[in-house]
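Protocol step 4 of 6: structure prediction from sequence.
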Amino acid sequence: MVSAGWLRRGSLDEKGLAQPQITRLGTGSLAREPVHKPANRITRLGTTNVTKNQPDGPAIAHRPLGKTGLSIPTVVFGATCLGNLFVEMSDGDKRELIQQWLAHMPAPVAIDSAGKYGAGLSLEVLGRELKALGVKPGDVILSNKLAWRRVPLTTPEPTFEPGVWIGLKHDAVQDISYDGILRCYDDGCRMLGDYRPQLVSVHDPDEYLAATEDREDRRRRLDDILGAYRALEELRDAGQVSGVGVGAKDWRTIRELSSLCRLDWVMMANSFTVLNHPPELVRFIDTLAERQIGLINSAVMHGGFLGGGNFFDYRPIDPADREDARRLQWRDQFAQICQRHERSPFQVAVAFGLSHPGVAAVALSTSQPGRVGEMVSAALGDIPSALWSELRGLGLIDADYPHLETSKGGSTDDRGDDSGSGPPASLAGR
């Protein structure tokens, strides 16, 4: 385990923003200072606050997120696109995208970012544009997934996820340890400027463990991760953040860490989807709900694949690969059924991703500002029960999955609507 290091504590300035101070651990008691909470939309556990996008618009629910004390909308905006995921967006398009986020969701708007996203570019853009738009810190709930730290770019493209991040000027490396996670936290706060994350987590601990060389190396790496969590828990206990979580693609790693750390919330990516929902994962989500650990479901489109994209879980699809060929066949059948019932794959994927009562929200992303409204509407849409039945009948979803008849994505009657084909594959839903 990592030895005791430095804990960042904060005082509040005239703007209500936490200002970093440094307190040496082990030299005295830790003062519990208030976290700046989003204004007038915070509800405690066990309640639901329902607001509307517009005076006559659809209702959006703010649901409690585990033990964080925060309530978040059912759609969390993923900020991967601000870091140039798949496409290099202009500064103007990024500002317009953020404006659309704010216009289509009642405050506080929940936004998820990470030091990994564009090697910190997403955080920089988010802090800069929120300030330029005059957004009050209390009108946003920010999540920063920690463990990737910016370093100089010394290769033609970034090394941390080759082929998917475009036009970057920096690279990123994992920095998972007690001190490393505090470095990542400080870097993130500096990039965000006037804003602070209320939600923090260790990002990609599954990848860190997957790189293990032997049993001893895995033990060392797990100690690094536990050291990172000790640091984050101290930040939470000191009142610097509201909730500590984990962000991972392999839900089994989340399960392991949930038994070792005091988690308030988790974010699963590429895990619980209409394509992939094994019974053991469903049972684990049940367990999270029983333990009041909030769940944000991310990447319900498998990186845009379910909508017709050429990437699956952020890697190029290979039709010659047996598993990829199977996935392409599944996608073709899925798209045909969605079309017959006048729903888009995106609408159905979002509804399924919200269907389990243990899911507080889905994290969705798009690089096209004009698609934000469709993205939000997908979380409120009605999915006909006949569509679910057809998917079950063809074995495209688990016949025993129990929660579709009470899907948060909407009712289960057979009425049509005017949603047409819905959002295209550009809605990646990372």
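Step 5 (inspection) to follow. The mean pLDDT is 84.
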